[in-house]
Request: fold
Amino acid sequence: MVKKRRKHDNRFKFKVALEVVKEQITINEIASKNNIHPNQVSTWKKKLLVEGQTVFGQQSAKKSEEQSAREAELFEQIGRLKMELEWLKKKLPKLSELKRMLIEPRHPRLSIRRQCELIGLNRATYYWQPADETPLNLKLMKLIDREYTKAPFYGYRKITVRLNGHHGYQVNHKRVARLMRKMGLQAIYPRPRATIPDLQHKKYPYLLRGLAITCPIQVWSTDITYIPMPHGFMYLVAIIDWYSRFVIAWQLSNTLDGSFCLDTLQQALEQGQPEIFNTDQGVQFTALAFTGALAEAGIRISMDGRGRALDNIFVERLWRTVKYENVYIKDYATVPALFKGLGNYFQFYNYERPHQSLDYRVPADIHFS
Reply:
């Protein structure tokens, strides 16, 4: 039996996308609340960010008479079509969502199957629920994040062994591999270049090998990490100065798209412009918008080599520090609490926390010296 595809009007899509852009709750929570799939929520957010800027496009102050006449004709057609549509709605059966509301699961005489037949509702449509990550998968993702932070050189097979042996979960490697892909995690270790290069984006060389880094604002670097939440997850991006370890800018997002990385870059560039900016080869950083912003500012772009475990080591150390000293201890329950907690921690990290590699000075003293 063919399953009917659910349809949502533009107002509903805009409302959901706007809620995602506010970054106050996770994708899973928004999807569950609105009875839709998390992937659909991410798609609507991306469309809003891409097409939203056209809303404020410039228009000419004076319209031509031909355009005005055409608009008047179109308005007349719209009015007529609206009247016809209202008449048609009265004749057509109610929509599936409204039909589902008519079902009485505990009716003493009519079964759910008979009620669906009476109102013309597919019984599968009544029982349909949006797919979402189960509480078990969210728990596994939280444990995977802890294991990966402790040993980033572990692949999905070793993490599967840890989950089964140390944590007592009976889970196979296929599920672990899927969850790690969803989290954006991949084992860090030197490996042969056996893959075909991606020709979709321009390749930039790694410029930091053998380079003497002698002062602040010489080299900046960035990366993204996964933050587990009780009802979903968030993504954290940060930009760090290699010499001083000072966190220049950071931002949270409930989707793994490139817009929040570009916003973070623009915030950082307001505070200065480094000579070199280093990233990995993730799609967020190889996007034309991101590399274009760096090129426009006259900044040399450096990218990690494939399989290079130490090319972006300082950001990897930052993630380990942030998670062990803040995220895992606090175990934030909501996104606003996470945002506030990370804000306080990065303030502490930059201005109060001594670093052994800096002779126990704080990053701010080195960065602004």
Observations:
- Residues 65-91 form the longest helix (27 residues).
- Residues 250 and 343 are 9 Å apart (CA to CA).
- The radius of gyration is 26 Å.
- Confidence is low (pLDDT under 50) at residues 190-198.
